[in-house]
């Protein structure tokens, strides 16, 4: 792979993020619904690393608004991840199962890139990274 190939790859990532614009919800936060949504996210696991998305630091932003509208901005460990196409749908399905959720908006992003430092301390410890 040449330096030019890497540059083009980065441009493709930026272009795909721009195309995948997902509207952030407005309105008041719903703290009562936040807990159940977080618990639902903890049921979604990375298929290659036996941890949930929260522990892995793959959730960059989570908004839970009154009326049950949920926005998730997430990433994966690498753009070449074999579940890149299906993981956002798994996240949406898990959150939609929470009583009181009316709409789920999932945005998959690649910037900033994920690094192991985003993992919880417990996750790094469990994987022998501390």
Description:
- By secondary structure, the chain is α+β, with helices and mostly antiparallel strands.
- The protein has a single domain, classed as GMP Synthetase, Chain A, domain 3 (2-Layer Sandwich).
- It has five helices and three strands.
- It has a three-stranded mixed beta sheet with strand order 1-2-3.
- The chain is globular.
- Mean pLDDT is 86; it is low at 1-19.
Secondary structure topology:
Elements: H1 3-19, H2 31-41, H3 53-56, E1 59-65, E2 69-74, H4 87-96, E3 103-108, H5 121-126
Parallel strand pairs: 2-3
Antiparallel strand pairs: 1-2
Summarize this, please?
The protein has 130 residues and is of the alpha+beta class. The chain has five helices and three strands; from the N terminus they run αααββαβα. Helices cover 37% and strands 15% of the residues.
Q: How much β-strand is present in the residues?
A: 5-15%
- Which strand order spans the largest sheet, edge to edge or round the barrel? 1-2-3
Major beta sheet, specifics?
3 strands, mixed
Spans where pLDDT lies below 50 across 5 or more residues: 1-19
The assigned CATH architecture is 2-Layer Sandwich
Radius of gyration: 16 Å
Helix content: 25-40%
The N- and C-terminal alpha carbons lie at a distance of 32 Å
Question: Which outline best applies?
Answer: globular
CATH homologous superfamily caption:
Fe-S cluster assembly (FSCA)
Q: What's the level 1 CATH class?
A: Alpha Beta
Overall pLDDT, averaged? 86
How many discrete structural domains?
A: 1
- Which structural class matches the secondary elements? alpha+beta
Order of helices and strands: HHHEEHEH
């Amino acid at each position: 792979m040449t330096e030019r190939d890497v540059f083009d790859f980065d441009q493709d990532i930026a272009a795909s993020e721009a195309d995948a614009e997902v509207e952030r919800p407005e309105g008041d936060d719903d703290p009562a619904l936040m807990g159940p949504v977080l618990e639902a996210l903890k049921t979604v696991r990375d298929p290659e690393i036996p941890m949930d998305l929260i522990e892995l630091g793959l959730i960059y932003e989570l908004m839970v608004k009154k009326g049950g509208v949920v926005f998730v901005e997430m990433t994966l460990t690498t753009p070449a991840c074999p579940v890149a196409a299906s993981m956002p749908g798994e996240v949406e399905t898990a959150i939609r199962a929470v009583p009181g959720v009316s709409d789920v908006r999932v945005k998959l992003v690649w910037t900033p890139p994920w690094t192991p430092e985003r993992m919880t301390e417990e996750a790094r410890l469990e994987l022998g990274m501390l």
